[in-house]
Write a structure and sequence with these properties.
mainly alpha; transmembrane helix; 109 residues; DUF485
Length: 109
């Protein structure tokens, strides 16, 4: 008999992991973006500094933020854990380990 899926309001281990991963990546991006905003707010002349190939810091930092967002989204997609769709536990999960025990009543008892 297949194991029923957990209720939507009960967080599974995969959901908890994915949530923590999302929050960590969000916090990293928030620090990067806050640095951009603070430099603009408190030392705007610094953004005019030529950094690479005639581009100023504002352009390089802005493109860096866009690239960082794309990389973090790809990283999140790769690192996320999947939940079982049909109710079968994922190999190595506590639910699959519990199902490996022989609880059936048979001739061996």
């Amino acid at each position: 008999m297949p194991t029923p899926l957990p209720k939507a309001d009960v967080p599974t281990a995969a959901r908890q992991y994915n949530s923590r991963l999302g929050i960590v990546l969000f916090a990293i991006y928030l620090v990067l973006y806050a640095g951009f905003v603070f430099i603009n707010a408190f030392d705007a002349e610094q953004m005019e500094t030529i950094v690479v190939a005639g581009l100023n810091l504002a352009i390089v930092y802005g493109f860096g933020l866009i690239i960082a967002a794309i990389v973090m989204a790809l990283l999140y997609g790769v690192m996320c854990r999947n939940e079982p769709i049909d109710g079968t536990p994922v190999a190595g999960s506590p639910a699959s380990d519990a199902d490996n025990h022989d609880d059936s009543e048979g001739a061996s008892r």
